[in-house]
């Protein structure tokens, strides 16, 4: 048996093995991406959030955004000057307030 023939077979086996690993890795990656797209996660506390802000009648929520993992910034209009309330989600209480005077 020639030395080149053994090297050629070894190289061919390595190429086929690496090709198979690329195909399997691509399939696994596509399955993981499809699973994550069909099962999105929510920020902490978003599932069961309830808040009573006790604002004047005529107040409307103009916007809500997460400030960090535990704090919501709630923008309110009407019922007085425009304002932003920082809501501490884990403790269910107001953490801060900014009033915007015209």
Note the topology.
Blueprint: H1 3-38, E1 60-68, E2 71-77, E3 82-88, E4 93-100
Antiparallel strand pairs: 1-2, 2-3, 3-4
Transmembrane segments: 12-33
Keywords: Membrane, Transmembrane, Transmembrane helix
Please sum up the structure shown.
This protein is an alpha+beta fold and 102 residues long.
Structure report:
With 102 residues, the protein is of the alpha+beta class. It folds into two domains: 1-40; 60-100. It is built from one helix and four strands. A hairpin with a 4-residue loop joins strand 2 and strand 3.
Summary tags:
single chain, transmembrane, 102 residues, four-stranded antiparallel sheet, 1 helix, transmembrane helix, 4 strands, 2 domains, alpha+beta
* Integer average pLDDT: 86
Residues in helices, as a percent range? 25-40%
Largest β-sheet summary: 4 strands, antiparallel
Strand order, sheet with most strands: 1-2-3-4
| Assembly state | single chain
Structural class given helices, strands, pairing? alpha+beta
Rg estimate, integer Å: 29 Å
N/C terminus separation: 93 Å
> What would the principal axes of the Cα set say about the shape?
rod-shaped
Strand content: 25-35%
Summed up, the helix count is: 1
Whole-number count of domains: 2
In N-to-C order, the SSE pattern is: HEEEE
């Amino acid at each position: 048996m020639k030395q080149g023939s053994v090297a050629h077979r070894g190289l061919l086996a390595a190429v086929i093995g690496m090709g198979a690993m690329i195909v399997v890795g691509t399939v696994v990656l596509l399955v993981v991406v499809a699973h994550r797209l069909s099962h999105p996660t929510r920020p902490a506390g978003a599932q069961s959030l309830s808040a009573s802000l006790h604002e004047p009648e005529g107040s409307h929520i103009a916007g809500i955004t997460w400030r960090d993992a535990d704090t919501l910034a709630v923008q309110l209009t009407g019922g007085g000057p425009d304002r932003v309330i920082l809501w501490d989600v884990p403790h269910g209480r107001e953490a801060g307030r900014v009033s915007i005077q015209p």
